[in-house]
Amino acid sequence: MDYNSFLDLVKQRRTIRRFKPDPLPDDYVDKIIEAARWAPSGYNSQPWEFVVIKDKKLKDDVFNTIARQRPTGGSGFAQTEDYRESWMRQKSLPWLDPEMEYQNAPVFILLYGDTRTQLGLPMVVRYDPYMKQSIYTSSLANAFLYMHLAATTLGLASQWVSLVASPNNHLRLKGLLNIPAGIDVYDMMALGYPAHKSRPKLMRPADKMVHRDFFGEEDFRTDEEVRDFIKRTRAWVSANHRRGVDKKMVG
To answer: What is the mean pLDDT of residues 188-196?
Structure first.
C-alpha cells in the first residue's frame, strides 16, 4: 500500500452509530481480529483478549447493562453535565432513535486486557505505576485502532462503546460473561454494515498543530482559541451522537 492509499483509509475510518441488522460473514470478524493481534505492544506483551458476541440475547444483556449509564439512563450523566463550565453548556436535545441504536449491530467485540502480562515488562517499568499503566493501555489502544482500520477496509461500520469500562459496567460485564480475575475490559466495538452516511469531520488545520524547531508559548494556541475549538467540536460530536435526527443521513 502506498501512502496516499493509506491516508485515504485513515480518512475513511469513521465512528458510525447506526447499523443495519444484516448478519456479517464470520471471516470478517476473523480478519479484524487477525489484524488487531499484530498491533505493537510494550515488550511484545500482547495483552489482548477478544470476546466476540453474536447471540442476540447476550447482546441485549450487554446493551441493557451499558444502557443503565447512558445519558438517558440512571447514571446521573445528564445531571452532572449541568455543572459543566457555562461557556461549554449546550441545550439538551433528543438522544436516541431505537431503530438506529447500536444494539442492532450484529456483532459486538469486547477487547479485554490481561493484566498479568505486565509481569513481563522491564523492572524499571513494572515498578513505575505511571509507565506500567501507560504502556499497557497504549498496547490495547493500538490493537483497538487496528480493529477499526480493518473494519473500514471491509466496508463495515464500527463504533466505540467506551462505557463498558466504567467501574459498574466493567464489573457487571465480567460477571455476565464469566471473565476471570486479572482480565479487565478496555473497550467494545459494535460492528456491522452502516445504516447512514457519516458527516464531514471537523478537523484542526495541520499548520496549527505542527511545531518545528521552535516551541515558544506564542507558537501554541491561546486559551481563547482552545475554548473556541472545544465549543465547535462539542457541537459536532453531539450532532453525531444523536440518532435519527437528520433523516437525510440515513442510507
So the answer is: 93
